[in-house]
Design brief:
The complex is a heterodimer of chains A (about 250) and B (about 475). Chain A is of the alpha/beta class and about 250 residues long. Chain A has helices at about 20-30, 65-85, 95-100, 200, 205-215, 230-245, and strands spanning about 5-10, 35-45, 55-60, 90-95, 105, 115, 120-125, 135-140, 145-155, 155-160, 165-170, 180, 185, 190. In chain A, strand 1, helix 1 (about 20-30) and strand 2 form a beta-alpha-beta unit. Helices cover about 35% and strands about 20% of the residues of chain B. Chain B has helices spanning about 1-20, 30-35, 40-45, 60-75, 90-100, 125-130, 145-150, 150-165, 180-185, 285-300, 305-315, 340-350, 395-405, 420-430, 440-455, and strands spanning about 55, 80, 115-120, 135-140, 170-175, 190-195, 225-230, 235, 250-260, 260-270, 270-280, 320-325, 330, 355-360, 390, 435-440. Chain B has a 9-stranded mixed β-sheet with strand order 2-3-1-4-5-6-9-10-11, sandwiched between helices. A 5-stranded mixed β-sheet of chain B has the order 12-13-16-14-15. In chain B, a hairpin with a 2-residue loop joins strand 12 (about 320-325) and strand 13 (about 330). The longest helix of chain B has 19 residues, at about 1-20. Chain B is globular and about 60 Å long. The relative contact order of chain B is 0.10. The chains are: A alpha/beta (about 250), B alpha/beta (about 475). Chains A and B meet through helix 1, helix 2, strand 8 and helix 6 of A and helix 13 of B.
Chain lengths: ~250, ~475
């Protein structure tokens, strides 16, 4: 029987604003090209999450108004199962608005505090609509290589001692525009502001996440090489465009 | 007064100079110059328009709707002033007004002049306060260029504020099929006119990935649809609070689709109908014609004017975007956002015109710097029909990657240089077959100019 990656996509309708669908398409494609089965469950507001079934839980970005609905559901319906899942070794990938909700809290532009699920030791503060939004191409140093994408967020994220940044900003703003940190990570939990979509154009990171997720049930699993010529070209071109433009 | 005439003269000089030097149509710079010299230029000049102004805003269809509306108004004997080249911020409107005036800043034949301006979504508040329009048309609200506006919610919010501040005499013309626009029409005492598609046989099955407004604006529950036309446009209702699509005063009761045309039956106020053939394809163009008919009706055009005007306006329409080059029928279709592009892909596929396509994806400011929207487009619609694909533009490799995911082997199909990409796509299109050119906004300007040159036609700003 073929090995299988089981993915839960949380709030696909509410949290999908920046082409997050591309991340799911990418996970599916990179599994199927290697003969791995791919199972996807989409879980909306009100639906329960099984804490021991999935290998990977993905949550994308949203507009502020939708983020409030999601914060409520995370608090009341899915939060406990999500924390339990991570205890069980399930991998979580959270992008943008989803990333913000993985922390301790998100203080909105109006000053309301949305509680996060507390999976990452971080918090996010929106300084108000008068302050600059962090919008643009972003290049991050990660794992000896780069991650490239687009960021668009008003909130500034700060990390506590229990989390480390996912990568170091080479071009762009990242978590808060001050400390060169981008995203946050701890064992099995990845949070980032990069969309664009994130995974298709960052195939090494995509495989890193897939491998971590599969390792829970298939210890020591190695992923086969696949044809990434278009992916690598898109990655290189995006890095070059971001950096080239930064000099002007 | 002197300031105004200096501003107008400066604008005219700049426009002429810009065209002569080959900088393009000179549609925005002259307005910028005029606004610098006289910040009140737009309201001063607009006050001279004897028939007032109508504004057209929304994510998709602004240019086409405004153009069709001009045609109708012209056939009813008026002489529209318009930012017809799609320069839709204040400077574009200022340039259009300056262009229509004499060198001393006077608009002639005032009792026949009416402003028909397409207005950028975020520019609406300024445009309303400067132009004091008689009517505002809202075509739709889709996700578009999120990096510029921040969020879809933001646009919805500034529209709501603008509508809250409107004078009771202004007619607001709204697409009833778009739940977020229908919500705008709920302000008490607002004079509204709703338009929408009535023919449910044209519905597609499910919501596309590009759909935005799927939650009830009153109670927050997910909306249910008995028909979806494109994106989130359709016949919707909320089971939670019993809000539903408002009844429409101007609607399309039936559509017959042809490969290159639509035959529409439009119901108008007072139980009248108009029937006409539009030499454009795609449901989105049916919506544009409908919005134009609704606006004309609100402005007092007779049903006869509307019918004749649309027929006449549309007779010259396709010319702008379709050219014959070396025996190939080349069509240029602007790609702006997921909902629009999905509809384009659906239309060319249904019409058997999707075998040869060249995509140009740019990420300049006017295109939107964030290209992640391509992941919300269903390029998978093309699998099975697209044979020759060429990919170009600043973000060509992003597009190549997206198309790879849709099943196309694009590694050898990228050509970064615009002219070479266009040439390659044209050469590889078998003679007699159509070539579809799909550029984003800034790429379109280059592409059109090149194609017009090859076809021996005038550049776009010289046509009406």
């Amino acid at each position: 029987m073929a090995k299988k990656l089981r993915v839960a996509h949380l709030y696909p309708k509410l949290m999908n604003i920046y082409g997050d669908r591309g991340n799911i398409l990418c996970l599916k494609r990179r599994c199927e090209e290697r003969g791995l089965d791919f199972e996807l469950d989409e879980l909306s507001v009100g639906e329960k999450l099984k804490s021991d079934h999935y290998d990977l839980i993905f949550i994308g970005g949203a507009q502020d108004v939708d983020q409030r609905r999601v914060a409520g559901d995370l608090r009341e319906v899915k939060g406990d199962a999500l924390r339990e899942a991570v205890e069980n070794g399930v991998v979580v990938l959270a992008v943008c608005g989803g990333y913000q909700l993985m922390g301790r809290y998100y203080r909105t532009a109006e000053g309301a505090e949305l509680p996060g699920v507390g999976l990452l030791d971080m918090w996010t503060i929106h300084p108000g609509e008068a302050d600059k939004r962090f919008i643009g191409n972003i290049v991050v140093e990660w794992n000896g290589g780069t991650l490239v994408g687009f960021e668009n967020h008003g909130g500034r994220t700060y990390l506590g001692d229990g989390a480390r940044p996912l990568g170091k900003v080479v071009y762009g703003f990242g978590n808060n525009g001050e400390d060169a940190g981008e995203g946050a990570a701890r064992a099995g939990v990845f949070g980032t502001y990069l969309h664009g979509s994130l995974l298709p154009k960052n195939p090494k990171f995509a495989d890193h996440v897939i491998q971590a997720a599969l390792s829970r049930r298939y210890e020591g699993i190695e992923l086969d090489e696949i044809d990434d010529r278009v992916e690598e070209a898109a990655h290189a071109a995006a890095v070059q465009l971001a950096m080239g433009r930064s000099i002007i | 007064m002197i300031r105004r005439s200096v501003a107008v003269a400066a604008a005219k000089l700049t426009g002429g100079l810009s065209r002569r030097l080959g900088f393009g149509g000179g549609t925005a710079l002259p307005g910028l110059v005029a606004e610098r010299i006289d910040p009140e230029i737009v309201s001063d000049m607009a006050a001279q328009l004897g028939r007032g102004s109508v504004l057209v805003t929304g994510t998709n269809g602004k240019t086409t709707t405004a153009r069709l509306l001009r045609g109708i108004l012209r056939s009813s004997g008026l002489s529209p002033v318009a930012n017809s080249a799609g320069s839709n911020m204040m400077r574009g409107i200022a340039a259009a007004l300056a262009e229509s005036a004499t060198w001393t800043g006077d608009i002639r034949q005032r009792d026949r002049r009416i402003g028909v301006f397409e207005v950028d979504e975020a520019t609406l508040p300024q445009a309303v306060s400067a132009l004091r329009p008689r009517a505002i048309v809202f075509t739709n609200l889709f996700r578009d260029q999120l990096d510029r506006y921040g969020e879809v919610e933001y646009v919805g919010g500034i529209w709501r504020e603008t509508i809250d501040g409107l004078d009771a005499k202004v007619t607001v013309i709204l697409n009833a099929d778009d739940p977020s626009l229908a919500a705008l029409g709920r302000r008490a005492g607002l004079r509204t006119l709703f338009f929408g598609l009535e023919d449910e046989s044209l519905a597609i099955e499910k919501l596309e990935h590009a759909a935005d407004a799927r939650w009830c604006s009153i109670c927050g529950r997910e909306l249910s649809y008995s028909a979806i036309y494109y994106g989130h446009l359709g016949h919707w209702r909320c089971e939670g609070c019993d809000t539903s699509r408002p009844g429409v005063e101007v609607g399309i009761t039936s559509i017959e689709t042809f490969p290159e045309a639509l035959s529409l039956t439009v119901s108008l106020p007072n139980d009248q109908t108009a029937q006409f053939k539009l030499p454009l394809s795609g449901l989105y163009n049916a919506y544009n014609a409908l919005a134009a008919a609704a606006a004309a009706s609100a402005l007092g055009a007779t049903n006869h004017d509307i019918e004749r005007g649309l027929r006449h306006a549309s007779a010259t329409f396709g010319r702008q975007e379709r050219l014959t080059i070396e025996g190939r029928d080349v069509e240029v279709i602007l790609a702006k956002n997921p909902a629009g592009l999905n509809e384009v892909l659906r239309t060319i596929t249904n019409n058997g015109r999707s075998e040869n396509i060249v995509f140009f994806l740019n990420d300049d400011i006017a295109d939107g710097r964030d290209i992640s929207w391509i992941w919300d487009v269903d390029f998978e619609l093309l699998s099975g029909s697209l044979k020759n694909v060429t990919v170009s533009g600043i973000r060509a490799w992003d597009m190549a990657l997206r198309l790879k995911y849709a099943g196309f082997d694009t590694f050898d199909r990228v050509e970064l240089d615009t002219e070479r990409a266009l040439r390659k796509a044209l050469t590889e299109t078998p003679e007699g077959e159509p070539l579809i050119v799909v550029p984003t906004y800034t790429a379109m300007l280059d592409v059109r100019e090149m194609l017009a040159r090859w076809a021996g036609k005038k550049a776009f700003w010289q046509e009406d």
